[in-house]
UniProtKB/TrEMBL annotation:
Biased composition (Basic and acidic residues): 73-84
Region span, Disordered: 66-113
Keyword Zinc: no
MF term (GO), any: calcium ion transmembrane transporter activity
Protein name: GDT1 family protein
One BP term from GO: Golgi calcium ion transport
PANTHER family for this protein: TRANSMEMBRANE PROTEIN 165, TRANSMEMBRANE PROTEIN HTP-1 RELATED
Positions of transmembrane segments: 39-56
Native source species: Pararge aegeria (speckled wood butterfly)
Amino acid sequence: MAMKHPRVIVFAGAISALVFMTVLSAAFGWVATVIPRVYTHYISAALFAIFGLKMLRDGWKMDPNEGQEELEEVQHELKRREDQEEKEETLDMLEQGQAENRRKKRNAMLKVL
């Protein structure tokens, strides 16, 4: 966002979100102390059961290939980032005159493996 919008606005938005979440968390914490402990216990147990059942239902209805597709997307993204970082590192090494040493080290490691 900082690339498309002014930095001050992005920073102000991030700080205001942090302040809002802090106030909201403190308010919910205070509400939890006002409600009797027995009710808080039952409410938390009910929420835990509801969200647990929802996750089980989502897992049951999930397509078997859905997880595999997401895994492949993540692996593709990691490979792309790794290639980009290696390219940037190689360019830096070329500027410093160290690219030849790196090639020799890589070839030596490949022979060992």
